[in-house]
Amino acid sequence: MIGMEKPVLAVLCGDDQARELAESPAVQGIESSAVVRYTGEAGLADALRDADVLFVYDFLSRAVPDAWHAANKLRWLHIASAGVDPVMFPGMRDSDVVLTNSRGVFDDSIAEYVLGVILTFAKDLHGSLDLQRESRWQHRESERIAGREVLVVGTGPIGRAIARMLTAVGMTVSGAGRRARENDPDFGTVHASAVLTDHLPAYDYVVAVAPLTGQTKGMFDSAAFAAMKRTARFVNVGRGELVVTADLVGALRAGELAGAALDVFDTEPLPPESPLWTMKNVLVSPHMSGDFTGWRDTLVEVFADNWSRWQTGAPLRNVVDKELGYVPSDR
Predict the structure, then answer these.
(1) Of the candidates 193, 269, 263, which has an alpha carbon nearest to the alpha carbon of residue 234?
(2) DSSP per residue over 28-70, as a string?
(3) CATH 3.40.50.720 is the classification of domain 8-105+293-312
(4) Catalytic amino acids?
(5) 304 — phi, psi (to 5°)?
(6) Cα torsion for 101, 104, 105, 108, to the nearest 10°?
(7) Contact 61, 12 (CB under 8 A)
(8) Which of 213, 10, 211, 33 is nearest to 97 (CA)?
(9) Which of 139, 156, 277, 320 qualifies as a FRET site for 92, CA 20 to 30 Å off?
C-alpha cells in the first residue's frame, strides 16, 4: 500500500457504466483498498481533487483536458482503450503523471473484423443480402483473397494480429510504420510511413490501424487515395482522424478506389447526412470492430491487474510513451 491512508481513485464513467463497475468483482476488490469516486463528465474536476489515480473507463469522453486543472495529486492515469488521444493534451504530456492503456484486449477481435470485411468485399456478401431482400436469384462470380497483397499501416499489436490472421488465409501482408525494415516476423517488409504514397500502388487492400499522432493525422488524404489501385479497398479500424473524410468521399465517387470498410470516423456518431451511409461500395460499422462479448469485463481486469502492481510498486503494464503517443514495441 502506498502510504498509510487509502489512495483515492477517480473513475470517469456514465451512470450505467458506474452501475456495471460497482457489480464487477475486480472493482469490488479495488474498493476494499481505495476511496473510489465514480463521476460523470460534469463532476470530474471535483473527483480529481486530491485523487491519486484516474481510471478513464468512458474512453470516448473528451472531458479530461477541461478538468485537468484540479488534478493536484494525480500520479497515474489509465484509459480503457488502446488509443490514448482523448487524454493526450499538452498538460498531460508535460506532467509527471504516468499514462497506461488497455493494449492487447482488442487485438484478435479487430483482426477478425478485418478478415470479415475483406471476405465481405471479395465474396460480395453485402450484394447477396441486397438480392435476397429482393428475392432475386442472380448468379455471380466472386474474388479469391489468397495471394492478394495487403498493407497494414500500423505495426503495433493490433496490426500484428491482423497480419498473422490474414497471412494464415493465404494473403501476402506487408506493414508500414515509423521506420522501414526487412525480415519482420509478422510483416516481412515494413515500409516507412513517411513515404506511404510511394508504396500504396502495390496493394489490393490497405488497412489503417495506426495510432493517432501529429504525424499520422490526415495521412490518408487525396494524394494517398489517388496512389491506390482503382481496384483496391480501404479499411479503417484505427482512428477516424487518420482520414481526410472529404478526400475519401471524393475518391470513392471518382472511382479512384473500389470500396471502403469504416469502423471509425472523425465525427462519431457518423452524422445522418454523411454520404458514406448510402454509398454502395462502403461498409459502415459504429466503432465496434474490437467489441466482443465480455470486453468490458476484460478492460476492468486489465486495470485491476495494474492497480495491484501500482499498490505494490511493481512496474505497470502498457506504459505509454507520451512523446510517441503509444506503448513502444521492441519490434
Answers:
(1) 263
(2) HHHHTTSEEEEE-STTHHHHHTT-SEEEE-STT---HHHHGGG
(3) yes
(4) 239, 268, 287
(5) -60, -35
(6) 150
(7) yes
(8) 10
(9) 156
Contacts of the segment 198-201: beta carbons below 8 A, 24+ positions apart: 198/227, 199/151, 199/174, 200/151, 200/224, 200/227, 200/228, 200/232, 201/227, 201/228, 201/229
Q: What is the CATH number of domain 107-284?
A: 3.40.50.720
User: What string of DSSP letters covers 246-303?
Assistant: HHHHHHHHTTSSSEEEES--SSSSPPTT-GGGG-TTEEE--S-TT--TTHHHHHHHHH
Are domains 8-105+293-312 and 107-284 of this chain identical in fold? yes
Of 122, 236, 125, 111, the residue nearest 186 (C-alpha): 111
Q: Output the CA torsion sign for 297, 303, 305, 308.
A: negative
End-to-end Cα spacing for the chain? 34
Interval 232-265: pLDDT, tens: 999 999 999 999 999 999 999 999 999 999 999 9
Distance CA 287, CA 134 (A): 29
The residue type of 49 is: R
Q: Domain ranges for the chain, please list them.
A: 8-105+293-312, 107-284
